[in-house]
Amino acid sequence: MSTLRTPNPALWWVFGGTLFFLALVLYVPGLRDPFHFSTLHLNDLGLCVGGGILSILWFEVMKWIRPPTGVKES
What is the pLDDT of residues 9-45, one digit of tens each? Predict the structure, then answer.
């Protein structure tokens, strides 16, 4: 989780922009129709958020259990 604690303004601009445009494409009919998308309901959003959180936690646990191997120093 140290990645999210490190100051990185570009990350937050990209993250915010992505969420903004995704919301536009999902909830504005004129933008949604060309892609044949349907609106997301509350349970759909919960499933997406839960899956995202679980995937982050999974990778954090894996990093804790098995740290990455680097180049061995001679």
Answer: 898 899 899 999 999 998 999 999 999 988 889 999 9
